[in-house]
């Protein structure tokens, strides 16, 4: 549920394999973001750690392991997947996750915290809760949902105009 730039610029120093968390520092975005890792995310990070070798980046560039992949790499990769989805951009994964999790009844504060959205007003000023355990459960639900879609061969996403498309 992170932004594309947060993902491609991720470094290994941000990932804690012991506490199963990814802490994205505020220097890389508008504010610090602590994300609990699902089982699937942990497995992916473990595999990526092996593949990254000595690079400080989770996704090192093939043009030099001391820098991350380019900002266009993920969009190019998605285009090669033959998703048969019109008007799709990487950011649509965030919209899809937010919509599904809200429809499933998850607390909006938890969802917004995972999206690293700033909560405005008095609520945002006074509420400093991390909801770490609840968000861990919620992100595990999301990861399980994504796995189920892959296993069943369905590729459902919500496009940039808010329309859901299913690949055939």
Automatic annotation (TrEMBL):
GO biological process: DNA integration; DNA recombination
Domain Tyr recombinase: 1-140
PROSITE patterns per UniProt: TYR_RECOMBINASE (PS51898)
Keyword ATP-binding: no
InterPro entries: DNA_brk_join_enz, Integrase-like_cat_sf, Integrase_catalytic, Phage_Integrase
Gene Ontology MF terms in the entry: DNA binding
Keyword presence, Cell membrane: no
Domain of life of the native organism: Bacteria
SUPFAM superfamilies: DNA breaking-rejoining enzymes
Keywords from the UniProt entry: DNA integration, DNA recombination
A family per Pfam: Phage_integrase
Family note: Belongs to the 'phage' integrase family.
Protein's name according to its UniProt entry: Integrase
High-level lineage: Bacteria, Pseudomonadati, Pseudomonadota, Gammaproteobacteria, Enterobacterales
């Amino acid at each position: 549920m992170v932004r594309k730039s947060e993902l491609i610029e991720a470094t290994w120093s941000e990932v804690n394999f012991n506490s199963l968390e990814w802490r994205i520092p505020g220097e890389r975005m508008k504010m610090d973001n602590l994300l609990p890792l699902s089982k699937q995310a942990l497995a992916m990070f473990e595999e990526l750690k092996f593949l990254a070798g000595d690079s400080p980046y989770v996704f090192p560039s093939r043009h030099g392991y001391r820098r991350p992949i380019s900002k266009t790499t993920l969009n190019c990769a998605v285009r090669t997947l033959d998703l048969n989805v019109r008007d799709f951009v990487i950011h649509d994964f965030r919209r899809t996750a937010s919509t599904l999790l809200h429809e499933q009844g998850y607390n909006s504060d938890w969802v917004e915290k995972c999206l690293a959205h700033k909560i405005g007003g008095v609520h945002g000023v006074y509420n400093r809760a991390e909801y770490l355990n609840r968000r861990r459960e919620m992100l595990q639900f999301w990861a399980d949902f994504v796995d189920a879609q892959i296993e069943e061969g369905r590729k459902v996403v919500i496009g940039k105009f808010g329309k859901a498309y299913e690949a055939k």
